[in-house]
Design a protein that fits this description.
- About 40% of the residues lie in helices and about 10% in strands.
- The protein is mainly alpha-helical and about 525 residues long.
- Among the domains are: about 40-205 and about 490-515, Serine Threonine Protein Phosphatase 5, Tetratricopeptide repeat (Alpha Horseshoe); about 300-385, no CATH class.
- Strand 13 (about 480) and strand 14 (about 485-490) form a beta hairpin.
- Helix 9 (about 185-200) packs antiparallel against helix 10 (about 215-230).
- The longest helix has 26 residues, at about 135-160.
- The model is unreliable at about 5-35 (pLDDT under 50).
- Keywords: Cell outer membrane, Membrane, Signal.
- This is RagB/SusD domain-containing protein.
């Protein structure tokens, strides 16, 4: 909650950091309109407020992208695991149909949102070190958090667009690189790793129930980065699979020694309880509170079905394909109505008589407290956070990476089996797996465990493989048919196009990514 309280200061900071207006030493009651980046960063409270503005900017992913759509749907529509019950949003339809281009609003909004985070983090990283007096421990922590947030934004951006501008200092219209060129992906990853290693050494607590960056999140993000670097497009291979396995194991080792601090939740219902925010399995989350912003996942509600206090509402613009839902193993608890990640019935207006929805819908982000449940009306205040890193993913990262290092070891098998145990599935004995069969078993578990958390698309890109719901195997990325639209993935889809207006504003970004019109 402290993080959300600090966000009250961020409107002032945001206007300061994005423009040339500002106030000198507002504690001396000089006019707020005189605030500047140079005069603002003078006391520790300024540093905390500036950092809070970076956290606030993370919520761009929940912003609107036209009628019945949100920015986050960019990373779901292209996977083929979801479809839409509404067709009013042409940009979203283009993503489902794999015909998006540099004018698609979700693409534009993601670029703008990520580079705003980077710009704000650059301000913190540049301006906080000279603040005096300020406790060194507080300063290191703030800088570590800011570097994690910058690294994470760059990590998303480089996976979406490939070569991108590398900006590490605050910019003004007079900056030499105000119209930056694109840097090679290797340089972007170098900064990402440097930032995360700095965050790892910043003295952060293993977990932080206020929602701020913690050591478990940093180590888990490093494991993600190393795992990605091991695959496409960098192809670092064995060395980085080893780095990924070792970093994930550090989190697992701590969790095994401190199961009350980091662990899997006993039930899937626990993963979507407001009271469990920033705890146990939730290593890092986007913070939501209705006073500032409500949970942004409403587009997963069934269209015109009365599943909440609002009655027959919702947009149905991200709903699971029946093929993906049916691809789970028989008896998988994750598909059981209202117990796992889907629901096929609910209660009229959230708390009335049970009725059949007629199809499976995504229950993963459904907040019973806010929206209602059997006989209990909802509070109408949706404070549920959005998961970004779960311990379940750490276990699967370790299993995958360790298998690539030395085949299906007992430790890799145990991590994999924990995910299946919670789903109440029987796991074949370790000796029945080869390295190849264990690899695909872990990949499939990632598709089924981490679906609808904006992760699957990045798996498709780094693996160049896509889960085939009908064969239960894996196809090559290029040529795989997305059953949501019956359209094949092409090589150009491995990267997004750069926004057309951004390229007009900055000709140094040319050429456009292959396969897309300029």
């Amino acid at each position: 909650m402290q993080l959300l309280k600090n966000i009250g200061k961020t409107a002032l900071v945001a206007s300061l950091l994005l423009g040339h207006t500002g106030c000198t030493e507002f504690l001396a009651e000089q006019a707020p309109s005189n605030l500047t980046p140079e005069s603002f960063y003078t006391i520790p409270d300024h540093a905390e407020a500036a950092l809070a503005s970076v956290y606030a900017d993370l919520r761009f992913m929940g912003g609107g992208a036209g009628i019945f759509s949100s920015n986050w749907q960019l990373l779901e529509a292209m996977t083929g695991t979801s479809t839409t019950e509404t067709a009013q949003n042409s940009d979203l339809n283009n993503l489902y149909g794999l015909v998006h281009d540099g004018n698609t609003v979700h693409v534009v909004n993601y670029w703008n949102g990520l580079y705003k985070i980077i710009a704000q983090a650059n301000q913190v990283i540049a301006k906080v070190p000279p603040i005096t007096p300020m406790p060194e421990a507080q300063k290191r922590k703030i800088l570590g958090e800011a570097r994690f947030l910058r690294a994470s934004a760059y990590f998303t951006a480089v996976r979406l667009w490939g070569d991108i501008p590398l900006i590490t200092n605050p910019q003004t219209a007079s900056s030499e690189d105000f119209f930056p060129k694109r840097s090679p992906q290797e340089d972007i990853y170098k900064l990402i790793v440097e930032d995360l290693l700095a965050a790892e050494a910043a003295g952060l607590a293993w977990m932080d129930q206020s929602g701020r960056v913690n050591l478990a999140a940093v180590k888990s993000q490093l494991a993600r980065v190393y795992l990605t670097m091991a695959g496409f497009p960098l192809n670092r291979g064995a060395s980085h699979y080893k780095l990924a396995a070792d970093k994930a194991l550090e989190v697992i080792t701590y969790a095994n020694a401190n199961p009350g601090v980091i662990n899997l939740f006993p039930t899937y219902e626990d993963t979507r309880r407001e009271s469990n925010k920033n705890r146990l399995e939730h290593l890092f989350m986007l913070q939501y509170n209705a006073v500032v912003a409500s949970n942004p996942m409403d587009n997963m509600f069934p269209n015109f079905k009365p599943v909440t206090f609002n009655g027959p509402g919702g947009t149905g613009s991200t709903v699971p394909t029946l093929a993906f839902y049916n691809s789970y193993e028989p008896g998988d608890l994750r598909t059981r109505d209202q117990e796992g990640y889907f629901y096929t019935t609910y209660f009229t207006n959230g708390s009335g008589a049970r009725f059949d929805l007629g199809a499976p819908y995504i229950f993963k982000h459904f907040n019973r407290v806010a929206l209602g449940t059997a006989g209990v009306p909802g509070s109408r205040v949706n404070n549920l956070n959005v998961p970004q890193i779960r311990y379940a993913e750490v276990l699967l990262m370790f299993a995958e990476a360790q298998n690539e290092v030395g085949g299906p070891t007992q430790a890799a098998y145990d991590a994999f089996k924990r995910i299946r145990d919670r789903a109440q599935l029987t796991t074949p004995a370790l000796g029945t797996y080869t390295q190849n069969s264990f690899r695909e078993a872990v990949w499939k578990e990632r598709w089924h465990e981490l679906c609808y958390e904006q992760i699957t698309w990045f798996d498709m890109v780094r693996l160049r493989k896509v889960f085939n719901e009908r064969t239960r195997g894996f196809d090559d990325f290029v040529g795989h048919i997305n059953l949501s639209s019956n359209q094949p993935l092409q090589a150009k889809h491995l990267l997004l196009p750069l926004g057309r207006q951004e390229m007009l504003n900055n000709p140094n970004l040319k050429p456009q990514n292959p396969g897309y019109p300029n």
